[in-house]
## 1
Amino acid sequence: MSKKDHQLHKLFAPRGIAVIGASSKPGKVGYAIVRNLQSSGYAGEIYPINPKAEQILGYQCYDKVENIPPDKTVDLAVIALPAAAILEITKSCSKRGIHFIIVYSAGFKETGPEGAKLEAELKEFCRENDIALLGPNCVGLIDTHTPMNASFARSFSKKGNVAFISQSGAMLVAMMDMSELLELGFSHFVSLGNKTVLNEIDFLQYAAWDPNTAVIICYLEDIVDGKKFLDIAGSISLKKPVIILKSGSSSSGARAASSHTGSLAGADKAYSAAFKQSAVLRASSMEDMFDMAAAFSNQPLPKGNRIAVVTNSGGPGILTTDQIEELGMQMARFTAETSKELRNYLPYECSVYNPVDVLADTPRERFQFSLEKVINDPGVDGIITLLCPATAPPVELAQAIKDTFEKYPEKPILSAFMGGEEMQEGISLLRKAGLPCYSFPERAVIAMNGMVKYVQSIEALRQKNIHRKKTSVIEGLEETSYVNNMQKAQVKAIFYDALKERRVVLLEHEGAQILEAFGIKCAPTYLAKGPEMAAQIAEQIGFPVVLKIASPKILHKTDIGGVLVGVDNTQGVIQGFKDIIQRARHFLPDAPLYGVEVQKMMPQGTETIIGSSYDVQFGPMLVFGLGGIYVNLFEDVSLRLAANLTEKDVEEMISETKAYRLIKGFRGKSPLDLQSLKEATLKLAHLVLEFPEIKEMDINPLMVYEKGICAVDVKITLSHEINIQQQPVEEQKELLIDQLAERRS
Amino acid sequence: MSKKDHQLHKLFAPRGIAVIGASSKPGKVGYAIVRNLQSSGYAGEIYPINPKAEQILGYQCYDKVENIPPDKTVDLAVIALPAAAILEITKSCSKRGIHFIIVYSAGFKETGPEGAKLEAELKEFCRENDIALLGPNCVGLIDTHTPMNASFARSFSKKGNVAFISQSGAMLVAMMDMSELLELGFSHFVSLGNKTVLNEIDFLQYAAWDPNTAVIICYLEDIVDGKKFLDIAGSISLKKPVIILKSGSSSSGARAASSHTGSLAGADKAYSAAFKQSAVLRASSMEDMFDMAAAFSNQPLPKGNRIAVVTNSGGPGILTTDQIEELGMQMARFTAETSKELRNYLPYECSVYNPVDVLADTPRERFQFSLEKVINDPGVDGIITLLCPATAPPVELAQAIKDTFEKYPEKPILSAFMGGEEMQEGISLLRKAGLPCYSFPERAVIAMNGMVKYVQSIEALRQKNIHRKKTSVIEGLEETSYVNNMQKAQVKAIFYDALKERRVVLLEHEGAQILEAFGIKCAPTYLAKGPEMAAQIAEQIGFPVVLKIASPKILHKTDIGGVLVGVDNTQGVIQGFKDIIQRARHFLPDAPLYGVEVQKMMPQGTETIIGSSYDVQFGPMLVFGLGGIYVNLFEDVSLRLAANLTEKDVEEMISETKAYRLIKGFRGKSPLDLQSLKEATLKLAHLVLEFPEIKEMDINPLMVYEKGICAVDVKITLSHEINIQQQPVEEQKELLIDQLAERRS
């Protein structure tokens, strides 16, 4: 693909720009934009549009965009006019053949219903007329390679290979300003604004393609199209590291949930799961994001997680060791040869193990010798150097680091120079050479950890992709047709019955039927409408059984004496049925009673929970963890989005929990049937992807045995928004009607 | 107390200083010290000691310290000579009447056995001759108020109120250098070196007393006298905030442990517990420590945890909100009046709720108005201001913050100014005015959180102290004599028997007797030597019972069929006894068998664990948490050092665990007997403080019931180092012999 091929490329490198709302008055946005385009060295033509001015900053003005002579190529229009004027101007641009537009103006949906209406109209027009619009309500766009500053921010960043896509304009400007201080170079900046037409997905894809970009960093408050994100983010990560700082974790806790799974899920966790499944690094702060960007921008990726520390002071060396281990990396173990060579060369007081302590009085030679030995040790994947004020000038030691890296550019070196003014020259020397240098050791460790985690997560993603191609898990399940249309129709029929009765919480025997339809083994559960029927069922499924009141209005069955466990004979079932119904009538005289559900009592196994909660952005999210009554106490759960889930993901998901240790055989016990558990989880993923109308569901407990699993208690809640007219779908209606007839008979 | 009164004051403000090993050659330590003393503006006399020089830097030299004329006052000698010469020179100093010495020289215990010997001799001499020696192997000491730079570090810090005590000399120098950049002023710096005589305890006490110090920060690799630390640190915290950065967390995981408690404890956790119990803030990184120091140094303490954010950009505002809540602080809720006044004044697009967003184009007036309204809201305890590049110059907005703080100096304001060069003047203006300003919002949040946590923890400590005075818990228990000498003797007798038999792991019935002696209710457990005796015991304690093989060599009793539960009749006990013995003989023919322990089977309760593990620094450390077989799976535990433990500490300790939610009544169940649990924990604390020879002990499970508790399984391991000659102590020997006789009969 040639550089010109990407559909958004003209937005980043237009051949001519119309500045609509251009102004000759300093202080106005319309002035700042012309000035910024000019001062950024933009080489194309600039056409200020202003009916009252002749010239602005030396460029000839036009009264209307339509009046720019037709022989002039105008790829991009940037607009700084009041919100009310934007739609008409956009139409004019479209007429003039301009397909790329940046709108800076505020006054849209962020201001209320009127602005939202304006924005909706704008969006519709753009969609219909194939207009790629950035904004409105944004700071603009900057490309340091074109070069072009199509923003109203004064400054222009250092040129480099980091793309920054930001939902906060102010943060973008701050970082652009900071880039000089940090010697961190950017390829382009995008201020997303209201994301009316173009959104983060478009710009992630552009940055992935952009040959000038090597690292992508994003600040996001939300993701507009979660499912698309899941489809594309992984492949972008495989090309370039993507670091996302996502805000809003605190506001997502308030979600009301009717199930365990629901209360354990939550929107922010869905984002985390989406990032994890896509090998996207989630930054936990602005500082972390920029510190990681500096490392990725210039340094090679480490091949593994074994880190060596070379320091001229013991204390910071120990702190760095602590943190390396705390973050899950390893302190490298040197070969005997490295240790011997260091021992032979270094003064007796130096530590020749990791961290290597070359002492405060280190001359340049000693420092460089140690660094070279360490970087060449095959057991070392990355190096952190630490410097406190030393006898040798910091600039000499910085030079030693630079020389070593130039000689051996295969492994990343991150540094922390601690001190005052006298450190600055050395720090600057390193940064200019593309060697990140931080003020404190912990910053270097966090950045190194980002690189290590990226390498690990893309490796895992590659494995999953290979695996997916080989086995095509989710699709594979479909292909093998273990769930055929007949079985899907069974599920729909159950939903249909529930919705007809305006129930959104399914009864247990209905849940069991749904699971069985998808091949997940369940404790046999049937609805008995009378005591004799209950007895018959019990005899058929075998004793002992559990009896449970069946009513859409009774959610806490135990509280009203609606559950009887361990009933082991016919007479007990008959009497139990009557007792349960009587108690229910007594406590809740108005509740509709469907009868009593009779469930075969299953042997005790290890209790786990699997469930799903529907996330508005990303679709169904699965939960796995320790089950039983203490689920919410232990919160030992792991989450994954169902979309594109592979068996490897499920394996990973299970292995992140404490429940996994029980499954592997805790304290000498026999291991349990992990394979059946994984299959059940994948089948659940299939079920909830097939039926997005399942808002929440819990299987708790899902008993895991040495051989096999069994779902014992199934709770399924359908979405309130489900429209009965949509279900059943046309082509299966007939089948469904047959099914219904069969079930009713 | 007058300033001159503190015993270490002459070390920080000596009236005359002898520089032994002074040199006239730049580059030598002995030169640097004289130069530093001179350039720091030290006002006392300086006496370089150098037999070969006439004068150094204008000061008259002496050949020996003894030859400084007797009419000259010399309070301090600083020594830069090889290690081998230090002891003799110290003796000379002592003869000259000098009681304060700083030794810079390396070559002591850090270099091996020979150096350790030198150091031990030096230590002994100092102790015997009342010499307060700092070092050896240190950078020295600096007091900015005296002023005096008695270190070999070139730079001299900005004067201020932060004391820095550091076990890393290099870190100290780095921070001294950084102080100018950060505008952070220090009162004094102490480089601890090998801590041969003076250690962190001495300097913590000095800093607590020092009128020039308001905040104490420490970098420590260990604490020499843990028990003393526990005695004094709390009272220091009540006077001044103490922030400690303790390294070495990664090396402490390797400890071998024979009990649950032991494996859950570990040295680094003991440090954390010690800090927590003393209201000391534990910093997690160098940056956190210094960012917190900047806040404490100049700002008033917040009265609570309700934080307001005033920002000119939305994105950083949301990130800050996330982090405030994540760290356990609260976003302040404004009064209706504040919101109304903000609404009336601010443009429509501004957010008038917390975070208050005054927009990027904020003029100074708007920013200051908002800040003043917010700081005066009674629901606000602290303010964080955030600034991204704005229309108004940052220096004007900095001035607005400064003016607001000067008008309303009751609440802390921390700021983050994000951006490049153009922010620097504003940042500098704030810092000079004592208003900490950070580069990223998360730094401000961490610093604010440090202040909030300090206020909360000293309040808790005050409550505990009041409580302790009122009830004198541990001592109180002693006073009420619920454990009398007779009962202590019972315990000692059991230890005596075990040690005679070279057992360090006690049998269960022994453990039960020990607990009973200290008033902790236990499942009745007795040793039966034959089947009939077992039957008798069972009949006496009541059925059902549990039978367990009793052998010091059989630790995993269940594995060899050595445990029988639920035995509910006499015949069963007799047969069970025989079966257990037979199986033990079969599997472990050489194990000595003491018989079978018969334990009353207790009703099922909520299983908790309480235990203790002896920490070499801090003495016994208690563990409380969820019990049962999954203790190590859940690791739901909370730790406290037993020394000075109050009922409040125990309450806090229990409430930190998930087990607490079960005890309070999980999901509608009845609450359990928290009071009995607390009492049992306090009694356990008493036991392990009384008997430090208990290396580790577990009570797991300790059943907690709606009424009462019961220890079911008790495992006590004694220290290997215990010397049988020390036990029993002389004055109780007779009593013990009686006891022994009684037990044997």
## 2
Amino acid sequence: MKCCESKIIPRYADTDQMGIVHHAAYLPWFETGRDDFFKKMGYSYYQLEHNGHLMPVLNISCQYLKSAKYDEPVLLRSTLEKFKGARLSFRYELIREADLKLLSVAKIEYSITNRAYQPINIKKTNQELWEKLNNCFN
Amino acid sequence: MKCCESKIIPRYADTDQMGIVHHAAYLPWFETGRDDFFKKMGYSYYQLEHNGHLMPVLNISCQYLKSAKYDEPVLLRSTLEKFKGARLSFRYELIREADLKLLSVAKIEYSITNRAYQPINIKKTNQELWEKLNNCFN
Amino acid sequence: MKCCESKIIPRYADTDQMGIVHHAAYLPWFETGRDDFFKKMGYSYYQLEHNGHLMPVLNISCQYLKSAKYDEPVLLRSTLEKFKGARLSFRYELIREADLKLLSVAKIEYSITNRAYQPINIKKTNQELWEKLNNCFN
Amino acid sequence: MKCCESKIIPRYADTDQMGIVHHAAYLPWFETGRDDFFKKMGYSYYQLEHNGHLMPVLNISCQYLKSAKYDEPVLLRSTLEKFKGARLSFRYELIREADLKLLSVAKIEYSITNRAYQPINIKKTNQELWEKLNNCFN
């Protein structure tokens, strides 16, 4: 289980006056992809935060290849690419459902921190989460 | 001091494919108007939250008379209309700077609560804020 | 067919530092409810715009009764309440799935216009849409 | 004139339940930085679109070094780094006003297109804009 698929229907509020989905609207989609991945893995982000962790974004790179449009369904493939120490990287692919064209590819790196935003080694503090994340690479 | 004026320049991300500012984008503007009002009054919302209060929205009514457009500056007039117990009401008027046409009128009611979202009577718990809010009506 | 139900999972990006969904985030949800209603009715908003119409918001009233929270699913019930001339009103009810508590009630009035934002009488210009909207009241 | 400075006050709606500005909220800020740059250069983005051009985003890379917080003013430095053919790159630096700490660095590449989203060589179609952009490197 390294990949998870989510379906997204671009909302009217996501568009801008260029007639396409505004580039900033992709980021909450990717976040939803991450959340769906964690749920499928058996440890939700909700639970992660409930247990005192946070996962702030460290860096983003995103290519916009073709435009997403209002009400044209897209598939989001979220893949956990790396996990080491207090850092995770996801790769996101956004695909137009109608013709399976690739619209966007992104990579987002997150830090796992405590509530004071300090990176934590979950191997020591959260064995369950650590194992589930590691199992994604088997 | 019952009225406070803020200047807003609609951002590209605020627009939708209809070519106008999306109706949801007005709400963060009104919130900014409230914040400017509180700062001018001498007790910022930042300080209010720092002191253990929250101000969730209870209800909103908003009329959209004319469309706001990208990069066309608007003036926002924020007026404290009512303050009683744990409730405040603001009236917001959005005016196009170029021709002073009224674009939108809104009324938003807020509750003053503690961190558990329970309404609090600030007359007892925060005399300074209570006085400053009351002085707005003199 | 006067009511349509949509399921929404509040996203992380919808929250604010109060720990609840920001009040502005409800408006794109309601818009999604309207879109789901139109699709179920057999004439999508996408199609409506494609045929040269727009549906700008005229006014909104919204009560916030209980807070929506991150990742706690909500049901949105969208009801067409009125349709006359170039105006439509929807009523929206937002219900927490877990305990069926009512979180929010809203009423939004829209205008049906041409691309120049002028109200149009669709009885004359778009018989198909006019009939489908009227059939919602039978 | 290769650099332009904008002042931004993070809004309450920009925050998330982590207590910091959500990472997606930076993108509309950068867009505002680009707009301020163009205005200072003497050819606004408004004008650019009015003259039949669009400037969709091609790719983004953004590092989040420290968190922006509600109501803590930030300075945004926008620099035109490259301009060639139908492509422009901006570099954005986000600096906390209080202590001049660098919060974020981003690079965004844009395409200059016609209304059909096709890249255009503005050297041929818009001499005025072409010269103004080139003068930024002198």
